[in-house]
Amino acid sequence: MTPLSISVMDSLGEDLVLLSIKPEKGKVATIQRIGFGLMGSELVRLAAAGRIDIQKGRILVLDQTPTGDAELDVALGSLARSRRPPRAKDWVGRRRRGILEAYINRLVIRGAVRPERRVFGKRYFIADPARATDARARLDAIAYSAGMIDTGQAAFGGLAHAIGLGELLYRGHKARPLRKRLTEVAKGQWTAAAVSQAAADAARNTLATGTATQAAINAATQAATQAATQAATQAAMQAATQAATQAATQAATDAATHAAIHAAQHQAASQHHGGAGGHH
C-alpha cells in the first residue's frame, strides 16, 4: 500500500507520529503522550470499521473478524479477550509495549521515515516531505477552520490536542486561537450536530425504503453490522466513530495529564533529595 492510497482514517496513528517527529533532531517530541494517542486512534478506527461501539463509556466488540491491519488486530484481540467490556478511559490509558515502535516501523516501510543510528540511540528523519506536508496541511485545515467538522477531522484534531501537538506546532500568542480550536475539537463541540444530522437523514431514508424505523435506530446505536440500509449503516459508523473519538480523546488527554503530573512529581522529589544531600 502506498502513502497515496492510505485513507485519512487509516493513516490517523501514523500521522500523529509523523507530526511528532522533530525534523532537525529526529526525535519524537510527544514521547510521553504519543502512546495514549495511538491507542485512541485505534479505538476510533475500530469504531469506523464497525468492529466496536461505545456504550455508557464501555467498549463493546461487535465483530471479531480481523481487519488485516496488524496493530488494529492486536487492539481488537485485546478487547475481545476482556472478561467484560473495558472502559474506554482505562483501555486507552493502558500503555501497550512497543506501540510507538510499531507505528514508526510502518512509516519506515512506507518510505515516510528514515531511521539513522546515532551515538545516543536511533533517530528518525522525514524521508517523504510530501507525506508530512499533507498531514500538517490537514491538521492546519482543522485548526484554522470554523464551524462543524466531520468525525475524521474530530479524531485527528482531538488526538493531536491530547498528545500535545497543539503546543508543539502552534506556538506563541498569535497562535492561541488555533490551540483553542483544537481544544474545542477535543471536547467534541464541533461534531455532535453533524452526527445528529447524519442520523436524522438515515432515518428519513430508511422510512422511504419501507424498512422499520427501529432498525435504523438500532443500526445507529449498535454499529454498522446490524444496519438495515446503507444510509443507516453510514449513520451507525459515524455515531460509533464519534463516540469513540470523544472517549479516546478524553482518555488520551487524562492519561497524558496524569503521566505529566507523575513525571513532574518524580522530578521534584529527585531535586529535593539531591538538595538535601548537598547540605550534609
Short description:
This protein is mostly helical and 280 residues long. It has 12 helices and 4 strands.
Structure characterization notes:
The chain is mainly alpha-helical. The chain has helices at residues 12-20, 34-48, 70-80, 88-92, 99-109, 129-143, 151-162, 165-169, 176-186, 192-208, 213-222, 230-278, and strands at residues 52-55, 58-61, 113-118, 121-126. It has a single domain (8-272), classed as yeast vps74-n-term truncation variant fold (Orthogonal Bundle), CATH 1.10.3630. It has a two-stranded antiparallel sheet. Strands 3-4 form a two-stranded antiparallel ribbon. Strand 3 (113-118) and strand 4 (121-126) form a beta hairpin. It starts with 11 loop residues before the first helix and ends with a helix. Residues 1-6 and 194-236 have low confidence and may be disordered.
Topology:
Blueprint: H1 12-20, H2 34-48, E1 52-55, E2 58-61, H3 70-80, H4 88-92, H5 99-109, E3 113-118, E4 121-126, H6 129-143, H7 151-162, H8 165-169, H9 176-186, H10 192-208, H11 213-222, H12 230-278
Antiparallel strand pairs: 1-2, 3-4
Order of helices and strands: HHEEHHHEEHHHHHHH
Biggest sheet: strand arrangement: 1-2
Question: Main β-sheet, in a few words?
Answer: 2 strands, antiparallel
Structurally, the number of domains stands at 1
The helicity comes to 55-70%
* Apparent shape: globular
The number of distinct β-strands equals 4
End-to-end Cα distance, whole Å, is: 63 Å
Our Rg estimate from Cα atoms comes to 20 Å
Briefly note the CATH topology name.
yeast vps74-n-term truncation variant fold
Q: Which CATH first-tier class would you pick?
A: Mainly Alpha
Mean pLDDT: 79
